[in-house]
Amino acid sequence: MTQSHRIPGKGRIDRARPVRFTFDGRDYDGYHGDTLASALLANGVRLMGRSFKYHRPRGVMTAGSEEPNALVEVLEDGQHTPNVRATMQELFPGLHARSQNRWPSLSFDALAVNDRLSAFLSAGFYYKTFMWPPAWWEKIYEPLIRRAAGLGSLSGRHDEGRYEKAWAHCDLLVIGSGPAGLMAALTAARAGADVILAEEDREMGGRLLSDAPEIDGRKGDAWALAIVAELASMPNVRLMPRTTVTGAYDDGTYGALERVGLHVPTLADLPRECFWRIVAKRAILAAGALERPIAHPDNDRPGVMMASALRSYVRRWGVDPGRVVIFGNNDSALDAARTLTAEGVRILAYIDPRPVPPVEEFRVYQGDVVGTTGHLGLQTVRFRHRGGVSEIAAETLALAGGWNPTLHLACHMNTRPDWDEGIAAFVPRPDMVPGLAVAGAAANRFSTAACLADGAGAAAAALADLGLKAPDLPVPKAEDGVYAIAPLWSVEAPGRAWLDFANDVTTKDVELAAREGFASVEHMKRYTTQGMAPDQGKSSNVTALAVLAETTGQGIPTTGTTTFRPPFVPISIAALGAGGRGHGFAPERRTTSELASRRMGAPMIEAGLWFRPSYFPREGEATWRDSCDREVTMVRQAVGVCDVSTLGKIDVQGADAERFLDLVYSNTMSTLKPGRVRYGLMLREDGHVMDDGTCARLSERHFLITTTTAAAGPVMRHLDFVQQAFCGDWDVRLISVTEQWAQFALAGPRARDLLNTLLRDPVNAQGFPFMACSETRILGVLGRLFRISFSGELGYEVAVPARYGAALFDRLVAEAENLGGGAYGMEALNVLRIEKGFITHAEIHGRVTAFDIGMERMVAAGKDCIGKAASQRPGMIGPEREQLVGLMPLEGHASLTAGAHLYEEKAPATAANGQGYVTSVGYSPTLNSWLGLGFLKNGRARHGETVRLEDGLRKRKVQARVCDPVFFDRDGGRMRG
Amino acid sequence: MRITCPCCGSRDRREFTYYGSDDYLRRPDADAAAQAWDDYLHNRDNPAGETRDLWYHDPCGTWVKVTRDTVTHAIHACEPVAGEAG
Ligand SMILES: [Zn+2]
User: Fold this and answer.
1) How far apart are CA A785 and CA A768, in angstroms?
2) Digit-coded pLDDT (tens) for A178-189
3) A731 touches chain B (CB under 8 A)
4) Strands A57-58 and A49-50: what pairing?
5) What is the CATH number of the domain that holds A945?
6) Cβ within 8 Å, pair B84-A728
């Protein structure tokens, strides 16, 4: 295809690198350096999308991220990215783009019938139409609206693209690279500051690239290139093109979205986007200003665009706009007309409501535009002037309604800007965001000279704050024209005049909202949906509220603005959540025995962040239950090996360590002898159980305590708090050593036989009794030995430095198998502890007291401890509380379910009748019955009673007998033996 | 939001775990009246303005008392909890 609308030799595009792409299935050619919008315009394509509500044909309005109309889908390898702004999508070979919100095609859209029904679709239409009957909402209205609403579509597949997130730190963040931003960056860079210059465009230079005013005798774009080259050569400067700063947050933190790989064909080489968090000691917002349209009848046809966008398309991309009419109300409009004429563009008419003296280059009319024609693209412009009403044929109508400073980021911390009558726009106030200064057009400086000086000045102020000396840098010479404007928001003429092009909000909608009582700007916004489309009303909000102010007669300062919130541009969730999919969702902690466990076929299950083996299947075992039953029996009859390294381990040392442990444990640890271990209970300060574990006294001043796997982090945090808040002058220090040690439980009647195959100094029953601990040599490695049991069997735990864990596990399993035992997993571990009534966080779930679990005597009488005072408050102890009990089904093979509620045998299952609940269940091959642990009101006094377990979720009812929670070996002879 | 850890310097708030008001530093005696324990455990002000609360810097284990403004979000001081223990 020829690029019929390309001006020969013009534009910052690389004519040596043609690029073929498709739009709506049709091939087109553009050049490297084009955006999708510029390439389509160069091919004479003005129609790029359909509007949201009325499905009006729409073309590109702007040349930047504020684009409301030209939203397209980009397709690649079955992936759809909807709502891509054609103005931001750089062209690359093989780009496939598709228009959206139309059916069956862009030029013939069936839903365009909405446009003829517009009288019924005005503001508040949803609220008025879809109210009655109420029952219709869910079944009829909502599905109907959902089908018609929304722009673009998703592929329905996972996003396979790669995204990243990253942090950056700097002295000075400069946002925007126009004249103010470049001067600010250069000034700070020459002073030696660590500078980041972020620019949304692919090229640095801002408006200098499009308007090219003279600076120091050079064209502005050439000047910009030279400055950028110098910045690029400096080691203390990071240039971040294609990066939109999206939000200003507390303490100098800024969010920024970098389009890393969206401008190249292959997904694989680069991440698509990177979400940056930039921490800057100082920042300068030099984001320029956005030009606003004028609301005149039929101002939304393809071919109507902003005058500034027209300048960009002509100068940057060599687009031939055909015959042009300019409608403006300010000096920058006149300047655009002059510059464009100088670039060779045919301006048929310059229309301005202000009296403008005639010029030679084009015809000037004092008047306004009252209508346009052209179904799929502009054909004629009708305008009123002092000689009457004229209509002329034109392909492009450029609107120049004045400039709104791009001050969004300055307002992100909930401060409101000031209204400036002089430029009829909101301008920033000083110090809206701590550490952020606004410079250039964003700060109401509209000449090139003023922007250059302002950028340099803002940088000098930032340097002073940073303690750096500003360099002696003369401000370049440039035009210093005056920007005069006569506000014109909407033209008084019959017909619909658009404010918010993206959401199809017209001046009539705003007037209607005001008439119906939605006269506050926040109400008007929600009633009309003004500013609620992907562009967030960047080019329309100010005009809409001006129209509202005119309707209510309140004036703009009184009417006020809506709230500016981050993000400044849409951010894909994939970029915000970069790295968080699949394995990246949470850190994964792996034990030293994992590889061996997997080799043995064990399915790994998550326990917090850890992965632990569920069971170790053997040949002939059909289900997990077969394996679990076998492993339980193996431990009860021979010996089993289990990795318990995931338990939290905290090393506590110092002369006051015992005093500290007395404070954090409810029971007394100071009386513990070196070489002995004691079970310990920790309370929260509110009197409920926090955690349980063991406390081993390795030597006089050296303790090693364990926590449950789940509570390792919270317990460490708690102990650090108690130590730092209440024991600051005590001689005690603590540190987590969970990952430094691999630890294995050996459990079963033959545990000692197994252990002694490894020890240099074998142990016997008397010499190393129950609850003993010591250092020991295990296969030549200095390790630790504890005689503790979580299974109720004769049990030991051996610990070695983690680097020996894998080897020790292999050896333990092999030796255990020689003795008729083997490895056991979490399922068997759970059944073994239920048989013994040992609790886990299923029981100590945060709402139980020591009394509830039958351990009130562990809250020692003679000393204070964390949680003691609260544990003895009324209501924390007593028969009204639910207490830990055992539950056995009356019919042994009836299975129990955790989460079931307890009721008296005949009582209906109502909340008022609730007697408690089940926390843990398992099938005991030892007792040939399902067993449960749970909490029952006054349960310890009710052993022998029958209760009904009712599981509403799984629709199960089981009768069970209440009993002591210790089902097996109640006197503990097996583990003490 | 950034908090200055007395041990590590200025860090993003994602590295910290929030606990609550610095009331938690003023633990009553074991035999204090019930009202004192209620105030310590449960009764909290919700000021619009200056507040002092406790944050844990997970990477280094330091507890920090942060004086900040709930209206402006300004952080006025970050002090180690350990410094004022008794
Ligand atoms: Zn720290």
Assistant:
1) 10
2) 999 999 999 999
3) no
4) antiparallel
5) 2.40.30.110
6) yes
Q: Where are the alpha helices (DSSP H) in A907-954?
A: none
Please, are residues B17 and B58 in contact by the beta-carbon 8 Å criterion?
A: yes
Q: Domain for residue A566, yes or no?
A: no
pLDDT at B85 over 50: no
A279/A305 same-domain check:
no
Taking CA atoms, A857 is separated from A407, A668, A684, A708, A861, in Å, by 65, 11, 17, 21, 8
Residue A473, domain member (yes or no):
no
Phi-psi region of A112 (alpha: psi -120 to 50; beta: other; left: phi over 0): alpha
CB atoms under 10 Å from CB of A203, counted, come to 17
What pLDDT does residue A303 have?
A: 98
Q: Alpha helix (H) ranges present in A60-166? A: 113-116, 125-129, 136, 142-148
Query: Domain tally for chain B?
Result: 1
- The CATH number given to whatever domain includes residue A420 is 3.50.50.60
Q: Nearest-5° angle of CA A704, CA A707, CA A708?
A: 150
Residue A861 phi/psi, 5-degree rounding, is -80, -40
State whether A656 and A782 are in the same domain: yes
* Residue B35 resides in a domain: no
| Structural domain containing residue B2 | 1-27+50-86
Q: Contact, A681 vs A868, CB < 8 A? A: no
**In chain B, what is the straight-line distance between the N-terminal and C-terminal CA atoms, in Å?**
30
**What integer best gives the mean pLDDT of chain A?**
94
Residue A348 domain boundaries: 292-401
pLDDT at residue A53 above 90?
A: no
Give residue B86's pLDDT: 38
**CB proximity list for A211: less than 8 A, separation 6 or greater:** A220, A311, A315, A339
Cβ-based neighbours of A85, under 8 Å, separated by 6 or more: A37, A65, A67, A70, A71
Residue A350 lies in a domain: yes
Using 50, 70 and 90 to split pLDDT, how confident is the model at A130? low
Give the number of beta-carbon pairs within 8 Å between A and B.
73
- Cα–Cα separations (whole angstroms), residue A509 to A123, A433, A536: 5, 34, 17
What residues in A contact B61, CB-CB < 8 Å? 716, 720
Q: How crowded is residue A883: how many other Cβ atoms within 10 Å of its Cβ?
A: 23
Whether residues A819 and A930 share a domain: the answer is: no
Shared domain check, A534 and A441:
no
Q: What is the pLDDT of residue A268?
A: 60
Cβ-nearest to A686 among B17, B34, B41: B41
Residue A133 domain-assigned? no
Statement to judge: residues A220 and A237 lie in one domain: yes
Interface touch A685/B41, C-beta < 8 Å: yes
Using CA coordinates, name the residue in chain A closest to B33.
Answer: A869
In this structure, the number of other CB atoms found within 10 A of the CB of residue A174 comes to 36
**Per the structure, how many domains does chain A have?**
5
Residue A852 pLDDT level (bands cut at 50, 70, 90)? very high
pTM confidence score: 0.92
A252 touches chain B (CB under 8 A): yes
Residues A512 and A656 reside in one and the same domain: no
Work out the number of other CB atoms within 10 angstroms of the CB of residue A175: 33
The CATH number that applies at residue B3 is: 3.30.2270.10
Q: Do B37 and A873 touch (CB under 8 A)?
A: yes
Which pLDDT score is estimated for A211?
93
**A214-245 per-position pLDDT tens digit:** 999 999 999 999 999 999 999 999 999 999 99
Are residues A260 and A215 part of one domain? yes
A308-365 pLDDT per residue, tens: 999 999 999 999 999 999 999 999 999 999 999 999 999 999 999 999 999 999 999 9
- Quick one: A380 and A422 in the same domain? no
Choose the final residue of a domain: A528, A559, A590.
A559
Q: Is the pLDDT of residue A91 over 90?
A: yes
Tell me what pLDDT residue A307 has: 98
Residue B83 inside a domain? The answer is yes
Q: Does A253 touch chain B (CB under 8 A)?
A: yes
